[in-house]
Design brief:
203 residues; alpha/beta; Rossmann fold; 8-stranded mixed β-sheet; 8 helices; 8 strands; globular
Length: 203
């Protein structure tokens, strides 16, 4: 792994969890790809082929600098530009909570891809709960915004997401819950700050 790749993993340990689920040479679509760091990391470590989707102009410029194929589009307008079954995996990394139309987007992910992968900050993490008990919205590494300038519109806990999947015919295949680089297997909804899920459409 390059020094750049190692730095990316230090800043975003969920990237390593995602990469562990993706076989070499897979086709991927990264929704809300930001500066393209995840796709760049997956190209370097898993030799993936694919595209990113990003709405911001600075993100598009950064993706091009990172050598990432990127399409400028608003996720809330859907994925109609992509044919069904176009990709092995469709990813939504630390973007789920910022989408306005969560249900149709998850369904579109599973139309376009064979499997979906999401990562998101766990609002049930004990530090977040403590902040709320103190009367404040949480501000942390995973939730770095103040209440008045946050792009997050749908914060959720692990239990919330798993209930959503059960109610919308989404089958969870694997889950990893982390705080930093450490995986939380005991009381994950309380002790884990970040959740990563792999899923497919339920039969």
């Amino acid at each position: 792994m390059s020094q750049i790749g190692a730095k990316i993993i230090q800043e975003r340990p969920d990237f390593a969890a995602i990469a562990a689920w993706i076989p070499k040479g897979a086709t991927v679509l990264d929704l809300g790809c930001g500066d393209g760091s995840l796709l760049r990391y997956l190209k370097e470590t898993r030799e993936v082929r694919g595209y990113g989707v990003e709405i911001s102009d600075p993100g598009i410029v950064s993706c091009i600098s990172n050598g990432v194929n990127v399409i400028q589009n608003d996720l809330d307008s859907g994925l109609s530009d992509f044919e069904s079954g176009s990709f092995d995996y469709v990813m939504l990394s630390q973007t789920l909570q910022a989408t306005r139309h969560t249900e149709p987007l998850i369904q579109e992910m599973l139309r376009v891809g064979r499997e979906g992968i999401v990562s998101f900050p766990n609002f049930g993490y004990w530090r977040n709960r403590l902040n709320v008990l103190r009367g404040n919205m949480p501000v942390s590494r995973e939730l770095p915004y103040q209440w008045y300038d946050t792009p997050n519109v749908h914060l959720c806990t692990l239990h919330d997401f798993e209930t959503f999947c059960a109610d919308h015919r989404v089958k969870i295949l694997e889950r990893r819950v982390m705080t930093g680089k450490n995986e939380m297997n005991v009381l994950p909804n309380l002790l884990g700050s970040t959740a990563v899920y792999r899923f497919q459409r339920a039969v």
